[in-house]
Amino acid sequence: MTKEKVDVYFNGRYLSHITNPEAFVDDIKTKRRAGILPHQLNVSYLTAFNEVRISTEHGRVRRPLVIVENGKSKFTPSLAEKLKEGKIDWQYLVQHGVIEYLDATEEENSYIALEVKDVTKDHTHLEINPLTMMGFSANLIPYPEYNRGDRINYGAKMVGQAIGMPSINYLLRSDTKFNIMTYPQAPLVETVTSGPLIAYPEGQNVVVAIMCYDGYNMNDAIVINKSSVQRGLFRSFYFRTYETIKKRYWSGQEDDITIPDPAVRGHRGEDAYRDLGENGIINPETRVQSDSVLVGKVSPLRFLSAEEFAAGIENKRETSMTLRHGEKGIVDKVMITETQDANHLIKIRIRDERIPELGDKFASRHGQKGVVSLLVPQEDMPFTGNGSVPDLIFNPHAIPSRMTVGHLLELIAGKAGALGGKIYDGSAFNHVKEDEIRKAMVDLGFRDDGKETLYDGRTGRKYDVLIFTGITFYLKLDHMVQDKIHARSRGPVTLLTKQPTEGRAKRGGLRIGEMEQQCLVGHGAALTLKERFDSDKTVIPVCTKCGMIAIHDVIKNKSYCALCKDTEIVWVETAYAFKLTLDEMKAMGIYPKIVTEDM
Q1: pLDDT number for residue 312
Q2: CATH number of the domain that 520 lies in?
């Protein structure tokens, strides 16, 4: 026991100092387990910082563990039997000091055994089940202990990005944006977590061949059977909900939901409103394209007082709700209701079918992600002796460097499961063993290692090597090329800088940063660079006498200097950003004089 003073902190605030931290921490733990102190309290002695931390703050991640005392688990077989019979429940175990919740800091002071057989006198806790050390998403991965840790993280992250069936009542919902897979499936190799989630599947079982295909699947890219896609593989629907409100204004005016009159400011032309119904709202099942008008709306002009306001058409502006730039689809549902303020509310849901195309992102549950590089007709795909054709060709180079052995085990377990009509359990630490799967493969008349002889679909020749084939549960991710593809030649500019707008939704330009600029210099593409940096080219009048920016009177077609009243003006070609910088300097009381000379 140390006699050195140790600081005690409660929820980050300094309380006092003590000289016997180990006894102090043990005393708090004993009282917590006896129910004298609240179960939400966690305490730990951090020797590296020489401080004791007591925490009851909300937002901490805490997990349950079985308490071990004197080398024995407090969760005895008799308690397990009572729990099965329903005589006791979870709360009983927590309140009677059998199970306790630890946060990340207290877990640092704990020595946790994975299995009952591993428990020694040094252990402080025992896992309820070893798989509880991983999160919900990570437990959806089969055979995770055979993969590297970073791949588990990637896999857990991508399960969350997968397009599946997030809710059963999606047709009644009006989420801003969501995706639904058309034909989702339950995995052939399931885990403890994926079993209860069978109503919310997130992918499809596909036949995979691990081989190269003319270099098209290099750098993690995957080759997909085009005929499988035509039969419905990985199809999904993309829904987006648009909404607009018929507002009332302080002047007694209100918006009009109608087909705008041609005299209204900002009228888009007759063609823009051809799909609208008589009430100014588009009809369901109408096909719409980028920037199509969904609801015709006319609003009163802003910044008018009640006296100035006239009810005529000339004081109205067109404010119709349109489809986002770059999106397309079919009007799925039109909802007309009211807000809490009794304003007219219109919601329109757009549906778009998404068929896998080049550039769409897919991943297995093992963090093996890649984009589609080629869609090959079935007759050109490799095939086995019994005529089986893979749906997907996966690059063999992705296995050695990533070391995802769990991926290979899932392939062979999925194959054995499909051939034997059986679902295999691939849960962490407690799953069907490799030997059992190999035996099942042999019993079914196949090689135990999952390899098969494949033939080239284009030439009919046999491949010189055996190809590893199997069935894997693949995920279609939310990152689709249709949502990301972006190009621009000309378009809108910002009001302040006269430079192109930023972002795909605003039809913005593609920024050339320092690295891109150096790349263009390295390629000798100087003209491309010059054109790109002319995006805000402007011509400004400059006074030759005082060097200040002059004024050009458009009506009189005359230029003069407001400072020295001189009319000796030269026009200088420069970037508008430069002119803006001079204006900002003037606002700070700096006199930026431009010295001009004839070139």
Answers
A1: 56
A2: 3.90.1800.10
The string of pLDDT tens digits covering residues 573-589 is 999 999 999 999 999 99
Q: Are residues 269 and 328 in the same domain?
A: yes
Average pLDDT of every residue of the chain: 91
Please check whether residue 436 is in contact with residue 141, taking contact to mean a CB–CB distance below 8 angstroms.
Answer: no
For residue 86, being part of any structural domain is answered with yes
Long-range own/partner contacts, residues 104-107 (CB < 8 A, 24 or more apart):
104/60, 104/61, 105/42, 105/44, 105/46, 105/53, 105/55, 106/42, 106/43, 106/44
Question: Is pLDDT at 301 greater than 90 in this prediction?
Answer: no
Tokens 């035996």 appear where?
439
Q: How do residues 84-127 score in pLDDT, each as one tens digit?
A: 998 999 999 998 889 999 999 999 989 999 989 989 999 999 99
Instruction: Judge whether 254 and 309 are in contact, CB under 8 Å.
Output: no
Length of the chain: 599
Question: Annotated catalytic residue: which of 347, 451, 498, 545?
Answer: 347
Measured distance CA(50)–CA(47) in Å, rounded: 5
Give kind and range of the element (H or E) at residue 53: strand 51-55
88 and 28 housed in the same domain:
yes
pLDDT in tens, 33-73: 988 999 999 999 999 999 999 999 999 999 999 999 988 99
pLDDT for 135-162, tens place per residue? 889 999 999 999 999 999 999 999 999 9
Domain annotation covers residue 481: no
Of 247, 451, 479, 498, the active-site residue reads 479
CA distance linking residue 440 with residue 414, whole number of Å: 11
**In which domain, by residue range, is 574 found?**
537-587
**Three-class DSSP category at 133:** helix
> Which of 133, 162, 194 represents a domain boundary (last residue)?
133
Closest CA to 202 of 190, 185, 188, 189: 185
Report if residue 146 sits inside a domain: no
DSSP helix/strand/coil, 553:
strand
Provide mean pLDDT across the span 520-549: 90
Name the residue among 362, 383, 379, 393 with its Cα closest to residue 223. 393
Banded model confidence at residue 303, pLDDT cuts 50, 70, 90: low
User: With contact defined as beta carbons under 8 Å apart, do 299 and 333 qualify?
Assistant: no
What share of the chain has pLDDT > 70, as a percent? 97
HSE on the CB side for 492, CA within 13 Å? 12
Tens digits of residue pLDDT in 484-503: 999 988 899 999 999 999 98
Please confirm, yes or no, whether 479 is among the known catalytic residues. yes
354, 380, 406 - which closes a domain: 354
- 55: which strand partners? 42
- Residue identified by tokens 């918006």 is 255
In whole angstroms, what is the distance from residue 523 CA to residue 298 CA?
51
* Residue 138 domain flag: no
Q: Where are the beta strands (DSSP E) in 286-402?
A: 287-288, 293-295, 297-300, 316-318, 321-322, 329-338, 344-354, 361-364, 369-376, 383-384, 392-394
SS3 66: strand
| 10 & 129 share domain | yes
